[in-house]
Amino acid sequence: MSVLIVGSTALDSIKTPKAENPRLLGGSASHAAVAASFFAPVKMVGIVGKDFPKKYVQLYQRHKIDLEGLQIADGKTFHWSGEYEINMNNRRTLETELGVFETFSPKLPESYRSADFVLLANIAPSLQHHVLDQMRRPKFVVADTMDLWLNIALADLIKLLKRVDGFVLNDSEARQLTQEDNLMAALKKLHKLGPKFVIIKKGEHGATLSIRNGAKTEFFMSPAYPLNRVVDPTGAGDSFVGAMMGYLSTARGPIEQNIRRGMIYGSVVASFCCEGFGLKMTTRVTKHTIEKRVKDLEKLVRF
Amino acid sequence: MSVLIVGSTALDSIKTPKAENPRLLGGSASHAAVAASFFAPVKMVGIVGKDFPKKYVQLYQRHKIDLEGLQIADGKTFHWSGEYEINMNNRRTLETELGVFETFSPKLPESYRSADFVLLANIAPSLQHHVLDQMRRPKFVVADTMDLWLNIALADLIKLLKRVDGFVLNDSEARQLTQEDNLMAALKKLHKLGPKFVIIKKGEHGATLSIRNGAKTEFFMSPAYPLNRVVDPTGAGDSFVGAMMGYLSTARGPIEQNIRRGMIYGSVVASFCCEGFGLKMTTRVTKHTIEKRVKDLEKLVRF
């Protein structure tokens, strides 16, 4: 089954203490779509400007990403520039140029509307709603978000959470949204907002899954793949959830049973993402290198 | 086999956003010894003043801790007072009164010197050396430390690392000692200082073990037991390593094979420690409640 992914399609200029890379292919949809492409066919929804480099279109194509839902509009592609501190965890935005995103209204091609797996990757909640409105009867819908939307579009986001099966956010966002410092307490509150599946991403510390099953709640802790060197963590969270959704769309059996392994695949693809700027290392991934790291993670937590 | 534990024996006055508790039983040796006592007989080395409450001696005795190596000296028991911030991770020391610790020179009873498992819990590296000097041929020696010793007794600590099998420290200490922000890089440097086993404690994010085996290095990630509420994390790290050493001293087979499970037991006892002030909840632990949480952790990481 295919995965529909909506999110940002951007050019990222990324500065780290060691290097500077202008106008890399970035955006939540780009990272998530490439990550998902190792597992399943992907239908991408997004918008780019006339300045969008052809080589990036070709990159999508090499990953067999369906681009019927990618609008090419007059104007400039969304451009983000950011800088990482020496510890590679803290980053600050230097500049954001919305470009064609300012007037983006995703219209889904007919062939997209019956997708079973929908990833509403990080983008304005109003656009996530808009995509969901056009879907027929998706089997599993997951939304990601970022702190910006907690600050400027909270009401939209809260409404969205009633419409999704899964919600993915990072630890600081979970704390901000729930006003709970303890993540177990935060998870409980997040379930009350709607989603049955909640995943809190903790960067180098992995991710915690909580599944609400009636009165019972189950947890899973997914380790992050330990890296000797983080080159650029931009897009790691998008890669994580993209790979997870790709895996889930092809795995047999109930989501409840598959999602743990899906998160492991997510951790592995996210680890490759961190090892190069932009999508450089993610695009070099193969089924074989993925499976090798999955085996490593199996050993890493066994006792 | 019994575990010899040297460390601080203290009275702790602990302030959290929710409560204030004066003169609780504390210190690295107290926490580690009680934690180890659920698995093995413990021989404790430490010093207290004449003001040390009888009820705390009785607490040690209830846990069958051998107190032949506990000196009772003229003067006051070491007293630490500290305050936790609302997130329960950041703490600051309000006051430290060394008392009888100022002139402490541990002299091991004859019956202690042949212990096979030695835990040099957090205390001045010179005292850790001094205890090790008096041991016959211990089978497995682990040292813990704290940032204070990195700042004021680094040379002693570096010397100690050449004499121990295992070294346990927390993530910020590992970064400070190695000047490496990446923990995998830090682990590599820590092995070069001597120890075959290095464990980096990451608080609520669990602990990472690295075993150097010739040219090969193996890793293990121990999850922290997820808690809905942290009351007082003081002594959690000491409980972790104490329980691990207690478990290891009774487990059959090579340390390399048992240490992962040892860390899991450590995580579990540390989780109980965090649920009450001082040793309140740790002392209520039973074999049964420990095994239940070990099973929970097994489920928590399975995929």
Describe the protein.
Chain A is built from 10 helices and 13 strands. Chain A has 303 residues and is an alpha/beta fold. Chain A has one domain: Ribokinase (UDP-N-acetylmuramoyl-L-alanine:D-glutamate ligase). In chain A, the strands form 2 sheets. In chain A, strands 5-4-1-8-9-10-11-12-13 form a 9-stranded mixed beta sheet, sandwiched between helices. Chain A has a 4-stranded mixed beta sheet with strand order 3-2-6-7. In chain A, a hairpin with a 5-residue loop joins strand 11 (197-201) and strand 12. Chain A is globular and about 50 Å long. Chain A binds chain B through residues 86-88, 181-185, 202, 204-206, 208, 219-223, 226-230, 260-261, 263-264, 298, 300-303, and chain B through 86-88, 181-185, 188, 202, 204-206, 208, 219-223, 226-230, 260-261, 263-264, 298, 300-303.
